[in-house]
Amino acid sequence: MVAKDVARLWEELRHRDPEEKLGWITQLAQNPTEESIEVLLDVLQQESWFLRDQAARVLATMGEPVFDSLVEYLGSGLWYTRASAVAALGRMGNPRAAAPLVGMLNDPNRTVRDAVWDALLLLCRNELATEELAAAFDALPERPRRFALDGLVERDSDAAGLVLRHMEDAAPDASEAAPDPVATDPLTWKEVVSGESEAKQAVR
Predict the structure, then answer these.
(1) What is the pLDDT of residue 135?
(2) What predicted TM-score, i.e. pTM, was given to this entire model?
């Protein structure tokens, strides 16, 4: 697909009705080139939820060629672009997405955080990704780790259990672990990271 064809398809995406737009997005995903991938990624920056959602679904099927770009989009200044990239990574199921997604739990936007929880649960249900998730959670400081794991258990205890079992298998002997003096206090991520007084309100 040459650049002028990509530009034409992008114009079609902006002006046609939803069903036709979906057809064009599907066409862009067939035999993808650098140019067509660029258009699909650009759709994640558009205000149309329908287009972003469809593009995220298509990008999720494309695997490694778009993985690094989606991770880069996690740093976008547009909350809806970050949310779309998170959704695509969750649907993709690539184990390497575990650490970047766990890092997004402190995103300032609630919609993005909700998308992160959904994406993490999708990874939890992927046996190939549970080990990477366990490592990503285990790399967190104690209190943020507890917050993150509590959030998973609250949303899907069975899926979270798969990750917890990996963490238990890799954990040092309990007798060697130092007790956490504040382990009984319920915390939110922002309270742990920044100590902001309004953090609990923001996360909930």
Answers:
(1) 92
(2) 0.76
